[in-house]
Design a protein that fits this description.
Layout lengths: L1 H13 L11 E4 L14 H10 L3 E8 L5 E3 L10 E3 L17 H7 E3 L13 H11 L2 E5 L3 H11 L4 E4 L2 H7 L6 E5 L5 H11 L3 E5 L7 H9 L3 E5 L3 H10 L3 E4 L13 E5 L2 E3 L4 E5 L4 E20 L3 E22 L2 E6 L3 E12 L1
Parallel strand pairs: 1-11, 2-6, 6-7, 7-8, 8-9, 9-10, 10-11
Antiparallel strand pairs: 2-3, 4-5, 12-18, 13-18, 14-17, 15-16, 15-17, 15-18
Helix pairs in contact: 2-4, 4-5, 7-8
Amino acid sequence: MKHFFLTFALILFSLPVLPERKQYPLVYAHRGCWISGQVPENSVTAVEMARRYGYPVVECDVHYTKDSVMVIMHDYNNMKRCIRKREGHAPIDSAMKTADITFDDLRKNYVLTCKNPKNRAPVPTLEELLTACRENGIIPMLHSNILESFRMAQRMFGNDWIAFGASDSVFLETRRFSDCTIMLSRSYIPADSVIRAMQKIGGRLAFSSMKYETYTKGFCDSIRQAGFGLEASIFPTRPEAQAVVDGASILLSNRAYMPNPTMKPRSSVKVGKHRFIIGEGTIVEAPDTTEYGASVMQITYRGTLSLIFNEKDTCTLRRGDWGTDTYGVRHFKKRPKVEILSMENSEIKSGKLYLYEF
């Protein structure tokens, strides 16, 4: 199963011009498939969990220690959130930078933050995380400005990995030894400037931005018509769902989940026809609890609907005429529930909440 989905992702990125957008975007696991309190982000366990959930790609952040060892760490300028003292899992007292600590000190005296003792582990090296990706059939996406990290990925994966960042000079140098997919990150700039920058780098490319205001339908259409992929990068849930509607081909996400073409849902709950005035709604609930699960709502409607997954993740879907949209999230030890609220006079023709278990 995992090999088919991995192959699908590789085929998508092996074409010089991307095909027409598929029904659903690919979802990449941001800092791995972490679970709050259970599975630390940017960890080997988060890679293993990504395989379990069927994510084809994990993103990770690469930085040097004081003695130039490449390690995986997001908050590299202040690691207080990400690590604890090994002894007693006590919090660290001051801002600690990755570049100010030796690898030996980091490994001997600290572990990744995790309430679950069995998943507390040292900060992994880049090589350890890449090895875990290879063993689990996962494509690594390196968020890095370190050229040597890209060389290591090339040695271990050939061209089947993703370089992610904002440095044109690093990417131009990367093109000297790799035909990997490059994910070019930018703040808001006009589509034609983005396209020129990517054409200069050449090869397989996609655009990424954390500025969700950038992702108008016109911007999305321009990037895709130029033959490039389009990644919605760590958007809040509401604009992430809208980016799906407007044409994002990839979601780099903390919790999003889209239907996996190789996996059948465990069960489903129908949503019948409804007509709502502003403020009215309905609730759709699963019959039981899943430990490792995901909920995907597919709904045919017109108007503006707010979907609230498990009282936590809220997305807004909007259509002037009849259409079908799909959005979902992963969860842990939940009896999934989705509340549907009408933000204007709206109608639902049909819908279904699909439930997955992993």
